[in-house]
């Protein structure tokens, strides 16, 4: 009776080691992804945003033809659209890369 439980505890120990290794790998990957950048443009390229994996805007470029004092709202919309799309792409990049680490574990989505 105790032998069966000991085997189960051994399996638990092995599982804990795998989880610890995975956590370590995930932390390293998160740090690496923070260094990557994504670039998005809006309005046919008149507004460009570059954002790092930590969701910090690295650069914002606005073409001169996008600056119309009579239509500031359109420029604001283009900037908002580009920044929001950049954040979405960063999230997609993070999810995609993290799923590569966890794909063989058979865990439900979103658990890690």
From TrEMBL:
Residues 12-39 form a coiled coil. This is Nucleoid-associated protein SAMN02745190_00290. It comes from Schwartzia succinivorans DSM 10502. Homodimer. Keywords: Coiled coil, Cytoplasm, DNA-binding. Belongs to the YbaB/EbfC family. HAMAP family: DNA_YbaB_EbfC (MF_00274). It comes from the Bacteria. Pfam families: YbaB_DNA_bd (PF02575). Its main location: cytoplasm. It is found in: Cytoplasm, Nucleoid. GO terms for molecular function: DNA binding. GO terms for cellular component: bacterial nucleoid; cytosol. Transmembrane segments: none annotated. Binds to DNA and alters its conformation. May be involved in regulation of gene expression, nucleoid organization and DNA protection. NCBIfam families: DNA_YbaB_EbfC.
